[in-house]
Write a structure and sequence with these properties.
Number of domains: 1
Helix content: 40-55%
CATH topology: Rossmann fold
CATH class: Alpha Beta
Structural class: alpha/beta
Length: 146
Amino acid sequence: MSTPDGWDLTGKKAVISADRRGWTKFFSSALAEAGADVAIIGSENSDMEEAGNKASGYGRKVITQTTNLMSKTSIDKSIQSINDDFGTIDILVNNAKVNFGKRFEEVTESEFDNLMDFNLKSMFLTCQSVGRTMLKNKRGHIVNMT
């Protein structure tokens, strides 16, 4: 993968919320290759560690931090720690999401509620926490994946 002209992220600091389907590896590697330092937050059973190891191959600083993405307290603690370590946060990629894992017509109302609760709440809480840092710095970019 090569970085297109105009996409140099040297010196930028990015946070990615991890999933379980391989997208975290793609995003973290792309950001690191473009020059950004990368922090990956997510559950222990996400692809966070594998993604972090791959992104480290680009010579950028990489942090992985186990975070409960359904807990405001856990997210705020992780984001504060990352901000303290990096000095700022310039980019957030909200990538954490769950899917049904079965045919749509077989999904129960309870399963739908759980999916919506995780996908929306984790995105909201992460945007809110990182957004506070970006507002203080008067800059930043957020990408929400659905």
